[in-house]
Protein: NAD-dependent epimerase/dehydratase domain-containing protein
Amino acid sequence: MIIGGDGYCGWATALHLSNKGYEVAIVDNLVRRLFDHQLGIDSLTPISSIQNRVRRWKSVTGKSIQLFIGDICDFEFLSEAFKSFEPDSAVHFGEQRSAPYSMIDRSRAVYTQHNNVIGTLNVLFAIKEFSQECHLVKLGTMGEYGTPNIDIEEGYITITHNGRTDTLPYPKQASSFYHLSKVHDSHNIAFTCKAWGIRATDLNQGVVYGVRTDETDMHEELCNRFDYDGVFGTALNRFCVQAVVGHPLTVYGKGGQTRGYLDIRDTVQCVELAIANPAKPGLGVQTISVPNPRVEAEEHYYNAKHTKLVELGLRPHLLSESLLDSLLNFAIKFKDRVDTAQIMPTVSWKKIGVKTRTVSV
Amino acid sequence: MIIGGDGYCGWATALHLSNKGYEVAIVDNLVRRLFDHQLGIDSLTPISSIQNRVRRWKSVTGKSIQLFIGDICDFEFLSEAFKSFEPDSAVHFGEQRSAPYSMIDRSRAVYTQHNNVIGTLNVLFAIKEFSQECHLVKLGTMGEYGTPNIDIEEGYITITHNGRTDTLPYPKQASSFYHLSKVHDSHNIAFTCKAWGIRATDLNQGVVYGVRTDETDMHEELCNRFDYDGVFGTALNRFCVQAVVGHPLTVYGKGGQTRGYLDIRDTVQCVELAIANPAKPGLGVQTISVPNPRVEAEEHYYNAKHTKLVELGLRPHLLSESLLDSLLNFAIKFKDRVDTAQIMPTVSWKKIGVKTRTVSV
Structure:
């Protein structure tokens, strides 16, 4: 079950797993498409409706993907989806995922935490009630850790203090209401692993980039989205679009920040590896990570460990090999669709308003 | 402004500050009284309506307390209260505060996180919008830390790891949906201190006990509540009531757990000290603590530091001096009001249901 399977990471993952022979269902309320309408932005690449996407996938590959359209904050809907599909694994991408979006105004900050935290709570309760053996693969973020001045260990850290030692959750320093919502989720998930024996993998991934995966490449109607606006577009995407249309690259501050970037083909690999290697019941949540974060300091120490997925068999697509193939070529192809008014950042962490912003054209 | 000023800690604090010459307003939706009705429980001590309490306080002392009845999750209501009262300090007790309550069922788990996290977000936004200089004093809990095998430092811990050093938020290991909601709040508050320069004191207190304060003692209509039921009653309260009615003491497991307990007269002292010593703007959240937590292990290491409030002038009421005076005597006085059906614990962390429990009589 891919919760949020109509979104950027979710769609690529749904197709990848379906292609690998998994029986896949997508659960999504399509609200990501509504955000585009409300903010007056659009994917650079044209994206088809979820209904057409699924029909096209069937016609190209012969494989079916089930579709449950609804909101996971509605527990009655989620319950019916779980009872109907009986998932062995639930991959949870069904969250508001933009830090700038969460910093637009109070109602969007509250929406982000309400939607993400309550949605994840409902997924945990649904697993407990309907599908105890179901393995939860939850997308966290490296941004949960901030940029501490010590190495970022994978989920936990062993601390010796005043002559005693314990292994404790790695301290969190998130820096947006979005990132904080993921911290809250991670704590809630870890608790239900301990209290209920839920099996969960909290995948803290860096910034994901790229459009092309083997599956989305099969037909233009399977194409994934390419966000380049100031709210949902991430740095690499925006730099590529800016380069193509002759816009200056919008580096924040001195540009001295270090972040980890992840090819979307590695996101789908990571999820597949996580599904194939569920935590043993009752041993608590396992967190594995691939580098990245998002924070304020312009220059800082940054050293995050990422050995576990490599040990599990991850073969990474390095940025040097794939930037042109999977990103810049798309920017070139759809150059005429660029709306330059979307390029400059419009949300400020300091100036976040308390009143709901309305979009005037 | 005392948010949650009709509750146990809030009422004692409101009277104490009013008595000390502060201009006090209580903001409360009175939902704690509704929980009593819904669960079929009641305070051992008879408690008067908030309207009568405030009237009585005026007649006894000549001092006025303003009353704003409404829900802080309703931002429009909260905004009006802030604009009307213009607080210099906001003391925030306005949360669902029972761990067992949060573990009753899914809807109460979700209610607890929604109510506490969104309510606190709204308070932070209200301060930012209407009262930038207002100092937030927020009640956290020692239960945010769990029971790590190393000393619990006050809010932050300095970690040397692989030859590098940083001072980071102390790792959190909460063990109920209630305690987790406080962890979420602490993270959100710390973030707004950094991002907006909010001044906040996150008071992580242990289990509070006792009924009597100087002010509630002035008239029987000012009496504070005394919970002894399995949901809102804490251990000392329950033991006293059990001793009085000849009920066996209900020690959980081997009884080897260590917790810190705090006399309610010290809670009100701590809040007063916190108000008088606001954090300097822009220096980030300060956390000061008085010992206590709540967790699963029956025997464990427990060593929490609590020097800062003593440095600020706290004169603690030690348990050995005040148990009889402030707790057992009340249990004896109201012995006839004990409903023994309320005594045994009825909520299990393991057996938490997904369906809403209804109370049948």
Remarks:
- The CA atoms of residues 105 and 356 of chain B lie 6 Å apart.
- Residues 106-130 of chain B form the longest helix (25 residues).
- Confidence is low (pLDDT under 50) at residues 282-296 of chain B.
- The first strand of chain B starts at residue 2 and ends at 3.
